Structure formats: C-alpha cells, structure tokens
Automatic annotation (TrEMBL):
Protein name stated in the entry: Glycoside hydrolase
Requisite cofactors: NAD(+)
Chain residues that bind substrate: 93, 147
Species of the source: Deinococcus detaillensis
InterPro entries: Glyco_hydro_4 (IPR001088), Glyco_hydro_4_C (IPR022616), Lactate_DH/Glyco_Ohase_4_C (IPR015955), NAD(P)-bd_dom_sf (IPR036291)
Domain Glycosyl hydrolase family 4 C-terminal: 194-406
Binding sites annotated in the UniProt record for Mn(2+): 168, 198
Amino acid sequence: MAQVKIAYIGGGSTRAPGTVASFIRQAANFSGSEIVLQDIDEERLDLVCRLSRKMAAAQGADLKISATTDRRAALDGCDGVLSSYRPGGFEARAQDERIPLHHGAIGQETQGAGGFFMALRAIHIARGLVEDMQAICPDATLFNYTNPVNIVAQAVADHSAIKVVSLCEGPIVFPQEIAELAGLDPAKVRAVMLGLNHACWSAQTRSGGAEYDGQPMLPILAQKLAEGISDDWARCWISLAVQMDSLPASYMKYYYFEREMLRELLDKPTTRAEDILRDVPSYWQHYRQQLDAKNPVLEPELSRGGIFELEVAVDVMDALFNDKNEIWPTNVANAGAIQDFPDSRVVEVPCLVNRQGVRPLGGYRVPPPVRGLLSALGEYQQLAADAAWSGSRKEAIAALTSNPLVRTLPLAQTLYDELARAHRQFLPERLW
C-alpha cells in the first residue's frame, strides 16, 4: 500500500475529527503514511491533533499525525493536499444566508449570492494555497472539499499548474435520498449522476438510465407519485424527477421551486448556519470528552457531519495512490466527457482514478430538459471563478448578475454591496 504524506488544510475544523476517522478506517490502505493537520486556530488544532492520535492508537492505525499553523511547513514533501476550510467560519455563512433573504432572494452556502461570496472568500485562500504548492510540492494533487467545490476547482484549473480534483458525496447520495423519500430501499438504486456540482442529474447510459432493483426507476417513481406522497418536499423532488425523466440533485429545488423555497426560508426563524452555530459548542465538548476516554469514539449526533467525514476524498486518494483503477464521481475539467459543456469547464462526472491521475470518462450528455439551466450555471461558474481569482468589483457584480437566482442588475448591486461590506476582511481589496 502507498506510503504518502497528506496535508489537511482546515485540520482544526469541526469536521476534522470525523475526517481523520475516515483515514483511520482505511489505515491499511495508507499504512506508514503521514497526515499533517494545518489550521489557523491553534487551540482547536491542538485538540484535534491529540484526539486524532489517540483514536489512531486505540485502533492500531499505522498513521503518523502531526499539526502546524504554518501552511508552507505542512506542504513540505506532500503527495496530496486535502483542503476543507471556511473563511469567516459559520458566522460568515450566516451572513451569506441572511442578507439575501432580507432582499427577497435565496441565500445558501453554494447557491445564489451566498454561494458566490463563499466562492470569493474560498478562492482568495485557494490562490495562496496553490502558489505555495507550486513552490513547495508542485507534483502534489489538490483534493478540494471546500465549497463551492466546482467554482474553486474551476479557478485553480484555469489559473494554476497544480493538479486539482474537487469532491462531493452528492452524486452518490442524491439518488439514495430520492429512493428513501419514495419509500424505496436506497441500497437498490443505481444511477450515473453528472453535470455540475450540486446541479447533477442522472444520465442515460448504454445500459439505460437510473435503475431500482434492476428495473427502470422513473416509472416506479411515477407510480409512487400517482399513489400519493404526503410530504411536500418529497412530492416536489419526485415530481421534478418524473417530469424531467431524470433524477435531480436536491439543490435543484432552489431553481425549479424558487418561490416555494424562498417562502420556506423566510418563514424559518433561523438559517442553516445559525442552526449549526448553536450546535458547535456541543461538538467541541464531545471532542474534549473523547480526548479523556480510554478508547475515543465519535458519536454521530455529537460530531459535525457524522462519524466519517470527507470519505469520498479518502476513497479517491486510495484509488489514486494505490493505483486501483476505480471509478468515482469527481469534479474535473471536462475534456470532452460531457458534450454539453466546453472542454475547459469543470464538470461533475464519473472518472477513472489510478496512479496516472483522475481522468473523466466520455460519451455523456445531460438530459435535454435541463440543458438550458445547466448551461447558464456553467457560464456563471466560469465568470465567478475568473472574478474571484483576479477580477475587479465590476467583474464580480457582472458574474453575480449572471447567477440564475439573482438575474437583475439592481438586486445584484444591492446584494454585492451589502455582502462585500460584511465580508470585507476576507476579500482582496480589488473586490471591495
């Protein structure tokens, strides 16, 4: 098995203990490897490092775990870099969600104006990260888990020589979630999801489309819909799948049910980030308690994101470094894989992963009814990536105006001004 060095940028986050748990669960595939946790919060970084070492020792994992606040030191000699960070923390995400709602627009971590400002902040950090990688570990691969993963990957792929692949569990879990909402067994679903991150749909392949227990899934969903589904959101999601003859990512609700989602978000007293902020102290309390335990065990309800986090990143690293020739859904430059996008556009598509890298499989098209929306989202993705990397305030507002959840110039200007003021300390001066 491969013996590698991985730098984990964001290694002092609430997700970090669960991410290390994912490495420990696959310790046999990384025997003798080193994981360097890097973060700017020294106190939390130290806690995560000590807890990680104790979890590894308790489970007999042959992994060396260290920590540093010095990013360049963490990158020294690395084979891979895992990035999962949140500039401004959940407090910044709360602003991304709350400010658009004040103006009758959807605010969300990866969608709309909220997602756009998360991209601006994330890429500001990513630019420095890949510059450091180019100087210190130019042959390392960047495994990005920082949202919006598609826009971050687009910026890095366009403007850096560093190999980058962005990852998300969405293509794996979206079909399972639809099955569960319809009262079906998620384990019996088979679907190839592709398009853009958080905007993927099930594809027609040579062997057919989405299947349930070996049978076409869409007619089964249509029957379930005809029989009646009581839950409003489940009915909307399943009706969208049946109408478009394709399984959608759950984030498509913001576009195809925009008014309904806006009403729901406005009626809710707190945003998603505010809910998370309420729970964050309990996560750290749990981690401190487990640090004192003889055999530390992460409890799903007390750990951010559950027990095992960023598993897809660990799986893809395993396939790459151990030359496993496995197929995983990832976000990479299209290179002709999906006919509906330019070759340079970062798309979410099945990829063959081995020691030669992460290469998209070809021959796909997105379903005809959704090509228009995905084309618009793809153009927005490119404009946002360019503005975040090197653009001005003018270019950034133009990019935000192109977002399908913003659309009008007055709204884009208003949202940009308020969000830029809120996030000023996390943005380059050219974007003020």
